[in-house]
Specification:
241 residues, mainly alpha, 76% helix
Length: 241
């Protein structure tokens, strides 16, 4: 598992793709945080990174599938997956190795955004920033990105075409994040059912954690979606001839 993780990291950072992904994320978020009038933190009357945590999931919704789309689909296309299966590794070790590499890349993407925290702290004139809410938002953002990674890895295991893997991954990430929230707004589900439908979406649990209180129900939700996605991936590659 460790060797697969290192191999995936080397593949990702051996060319400009990995660095472009990190710079692109920081650039897009930076534009929303400092340049666009409606979301700029410079126009707020209080020190907050709420606009960053609102836009980051939407950027991740496309960035993570772009990072992950080659993970399995390219191995199927080039035939290297058959060689990988000859190694003394179980399907779980293969998938967890690849998934661990994706999580490390996500950390490399998120960590530089701590610069925004110091910027906000420097701009604050009185009480400073809400440390509890900020910590919860970062935990929620990482869990959300981890789910996107697991779903994207799963989708990559169903096709040998990287473009198709990207499109399918982005679609399912969109459905899981915003689809249930949009569905709950339909008049047909008013009267109590809308709340439970909204609970099925990641946006509900992400907003809950972002308030600064890490509820075990939210954590269990994220971990359950991750485990289910990885389980489907393992079953898929185990049955692949």
């Amino acid at each position: 598992m460790y060797s697969i993780c290192i191999k995936e990291l080397n593949r990702f950072f051996s060319n400009l793709t990995g660095y472009i992904a990190i710079v692109l994320f920081l650039l897009v978020c930076g534009v929303f945080l400092f340049l666009l009038p409606d979301s700029s933190i410079l126009n707020n009357n209080y020190a907050s990174l709420s606009s960053f945590f609102e836009i980051a999931p939407w950027v991740f919704m496309f960035l993570i599938p772009a990072i992950t789309m080659h993970t399995l689909s390219e191995e199927f296309k080039t035939g290297t997956f058959e060689l990988l299966k000859t190694k003394p590794l179980t399907a779980w070790q293969i998938i967890l190795g690849k998934y661990s590499a994706i999580l490390i890349v996500i950390l490399f993407v998120i960590i530089p955004t701590l610069l925004y925290v110091f910027t906000i702290k420097a701009l604050a004139t009185q009480a400073g920033i809400d440390a509890g809410g900020l910590a919860g938002s970062y935990v929620g953002l990482f869990l959300l990105a981890a789910v996107f990674a697991a779903v994207s890895l799963c989708c990559s295991g169903f096709t040998g075409n990287t473009v198709v893997a990207f499109l399918i991954s982005s679609f399912f990430c969109l459905i899981l994040y915003f689809g249930f929230n949009a569905l709950s707004k339909l008049p047909f589900f008013t009267g109590g059912a809308d709340y439970y439908i909204e609970m099925l979406g990641m946006d509900f649990h992400y907003r809950s954690i972002s308030r600064g209180v890490i509820d075990s129900r939210d954590v269990v939700y994220f971990l359950s979606v991750i485990f289910l996605s990885l389980l489907i991936t393992v079953k898929k590659i185990s049955n692949k001839k």
